Amino acid sequence: MTAVVVGVDGSPASTAAVALAVRVASERHRPVRVVHAFVWPLLHVPVGPSPYGPADGGLRHEAERIVGEAVAYAETCDARVSVSGDVIAGGVSAVLLAASRHAFAIVLGDRGLGGFTGLMVGSVAVQVAAHATCPVLVARGTARENGPVVVGVDGSPNSDRAVAFAAEEAVLRKTDLLAVHAWTGPVSTRPGDMRPLVYDPEQVAEDESRVLFEATAGLNERYPDLLVGHRVVRGRAAHTMITQSHGAQLVVVGARGRGGFAGLLLGSVSQGLLHHAECPVAIVRPTAA
After folding, report:
1. Is the CB of residue 63 less than 8 Å from the CB of residue 34?
2. What is the CATH number of the domain that holds 220?
3. Quick one: 245 and 221 in the same domain?
4. DSSP-based three-state secondary structure for 35
5. Where is each UspA domain found (predicted)?
6. Do 190 and 257 lie in a common domain?
7. Please, are residues 284 and 251 in contact by the beta-carbon 8 Å criterion?
């Protein structure tokens, strides 16, 4: 059974990530794998204890301590969840992306120390969310036990996967699902399409509402007890989803939607949420990265 992998570095943010990883794993009866990226061997620096210091000193022992403490904390979060830990030599992004190939999900904190310094303003989070072969969850904002699971919908295949993930998460959390669709005007759906200069806002709003309801059609049949709410908002998608994260347990989006450019693996909405959401964020990648 594939595990929920959580990256740790000893920071408070990575501790929050461990708690989120345990929750996701417990809901699905999966194990947790704690991973620390040990970059120092790549820099060819001594990693063992100093001859002038304690026997349990040195960078390698420090890395093992970080993992050991994270494993111990995970076990206190839910004793039913099986937890293991690994110190893996390599760069942070490379280690996490390799782990994603055999993981149910990757979980990260929103900022960190050491190997994860500058996570949200640097390249690590973007690289992992853009290239991981499994969903990526970022523990940020307020961790809540109540409130809905919110999912962004735009009618693209990526958002369809996000809807499926969010619906399952809402059922497992025993909460409601709120599907949100934002629009500002007619959009180009294929390369070379021109956006109309003149359009009927009421007709566009009706069309956009249809996108939302079609994306969630069939959920009530699959999950009869799931309460699904729908919200269509005229406005920028990133701002809308950040606003909807207030009071939510989790916000779920696809890695890139129908408005994105083909060469971009992570859209503006996903990046905006990674930086500004008020609750944990899940970014759902295509099945093949």
Report:
1. no
2. 3.40.50.12370
3. yes
4. strand
5. 3-140, 148-285
6. yes
7. no
With bands split at pLDDT 50, 70 and 90, how would you rate the model's confidence at 117? very low
- Structural domain range at position 179: 149-281
pLDDT for the residue numbered 45: 53
Residue 76's alpha-carbon distances to 81, 92, 133, in angstroms, are 10, 26, 29
Domain count, the chain: 2
pTM of the model: 0.84
Is residue 245 a contact partner of residue 193, using CB atoms and an 8 Å limit? no
Rounded average pLDDT over 265-277: 81
Angle between helices 201-216 and 157-173 (to 10 degrees): 60
* Whether 132 and 9 share a structural domain: yes
Same domain, 125 and 153: no
Phi-psi region of 58 (alpha: psi -120 to 50; beta: other; left: phi over 0): left
Task: Give yes or no: residues 102 and 165 share one domain.
Answer: no
Q: Check whether residue 134 and residue 167 sit in a common domain.
A: no
Which residue type, as a one-letter code, is found at position 1? M
Question: Is a pLDDT exceeding 80 seen at residue 17?
Answer: yes
Residue 23 near residue 30 (C-beta atoms within 8 A): no
